[in-house]
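Page header: ASSEMBLY MODEL / two components / 521 residues total.
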Amino acid sequence: MNETFVVEILLVEDNPHDLELTQRALRKANVTNHLQVARDGAEALDFLFCEGAHAERKMENAPKVILLDLKLPKVDGLEVLKRIKGDPRTQMIPVVVLTSSKEQNDVIESYRLGVNSYIVKPVNFESFAAAVQEIGMYWLLLNQPPQLEE
Amino acid sequence: MKEINDLKAALDEHAIVAITDPQGKITYVNDKFCSISKYSREELLGQDHRIINSSYHPKEFIRGLWDTIAQGHVWHGEIKNRAKDGTYYWVDTTIVPFLNDDGKPRQYVAIRADITERKRGEEEIRELNTQLEQRVMLRTAELETANRELEAFSYSVSHDLRAPLRAMDGFSQAVLEDCAELLPEEGRHYLRTIREGAQRMGALIDDLLTFSRLSRTPINKRQIDTAALVNHVLTEPGFKPDSRNIDLRIGELPACVGDPALLKQVWMNLLSNAFKYTRKREPALVEIGCRREDGADVFFVGDNGTGFDMRYASKLFRVFQRLHRAEDYEGTGVGLAIVQRIVHRHGGRVWADATINRGATFYFTLWKTMS
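Prediction written out in full:
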């Protein structure tokens, strides 16, 4: 895997259909370059903390935004969020929870852990595509991240 | 002397009587004592009361009794005894010590009354209470389990049931976008129908979850300015259709007590129904108000819309029950079920009155007090 380029979006999604639809929506918005996909929580953590299959990666090349599903195999989304926001090396990376769950407990817990946005995936594809495109536009283009000293 | 004899005869009719010497040896028993203890007089005389000891009372109890009477005080209490045949009986007992000139007990006279039946009753009540408590605990635990299961179920519905719908809708749309020219109009129509079905099911799931969540969320009652609440609902952007000519009449709305968020939902559902079912009226008339009936405030939302057949009124408030076709008036059939559940949770009542093509009016009351 070529890991020299900077990953802009880390998409953590286990459902292949949702994954394809999200990729399609991003492609339509021309924000598909530099997309890294993790299919479960453990893979996401390996990528973010440069462990396991991603041991060669550099921590400095952090993604600009993480799109995180909550219900994931192995390590669930809330646990991934907790690890990201609990580690000084990753806590500044914006995390957008992109999930099917409207359960208030999930929303509250995500915000308690420091999520930057919480988006419920709509069933309607136009709404879904619009949501994904707006997330991409906002976090990749509009948002001004802190300049970290190397 | 005759008086004393009469008194003794009457006492023997009523009470169980025994006399013991200072050491506790039985020196006299009356017939009632013999019949309740099932011992003969010969078997009892010369014995002490250990002969009818039930071992029910702790040592301290018996010691307390003896200490009291040995010091020349009257003892009163309830004692469980054991009869000769092994059965038990309860006696309400008074023991009176009679003293010598030097102040030492000369003899003890014990008068007792049979209270076995009363004790059995008390025992039964105690047992029933214990059983009831256990049953309540068990039922509570069952309910808690059911509630947890329901929560897990709706969590899973919330997470897992929407994803396949998104796939149906999304990939149908992908075909429409990418391969539209390969498909005849019929094929495109079928794909749009698939999308409609998926989206409708999505809406049904959302409404069902909202509905099921209603029974689990706690109610926070407050004093509510009803007029302000209704105004708040009506002025929410996009809530009231501006494009239509709607004659909106708002009467006096007294304050009420309830959960503001939930009651807002009630007004929203009733008002959006009124707007929806007057769509074909020109002008549409929607009337909001309150009238006093039997000391209760009855709030109402009435319209001159399409109404419904009162024969089906009982179905109105059931989940997924609709009295109109989806192609005429969109909806999932959950709105009024939500209204009813909220009103019921407030201890109130909701009902409707309608005439086909003339309009419908929905009424509800709320329980007045804060508790």
